[in-house]
Amino acid sequence: MEKSLLAAFLQQPDLAERYLAELEAEDFPTPEQRSVLAAVAHLLQQGGLVTAQAVLERVEPEARGLLAELAVTEVPQERLEEQVRRAIRRLVESRLRKEENALRRQIEAAGSDAEREALLERRGELVRRRSELTGEREM
Length: 139
Prior knowledge:
Elements: H1 2-11, H2 13-19, H3 31-45, H4 52-56, H5 64-72, H6 80-109, H7 113-138
Helix pairs in contact: 1-2, 1-3, 1-5, 6-7
């Protein structure tokens, strides 16, 4: 899913421009994927064109093989934006779930009632955000 999303961003930079802000580096499991994401983000922030060559100039050397793979990955154009939105929702939902689990552990280890309350409030926010994502998917 992550590779397909990065391939879509490379081949359809307008999608990257619209949706990149919703993602975080930690949404991608490998350093190579994070390097490609960072290069695309850098190009967009600088107002540059997102091309395979421009990304190649900015990725870590270890990510060049992945970049070559992404550049030739077939990206189906039919309903592409919908697929991109769906992939982003899944990645964000997964991140929120991980944050929620980490907060659960912190709540158990909280040393004071005030700390516990603050953590519970943060966890509630994550649960709400995840519910919103799930609700969007069901539409």
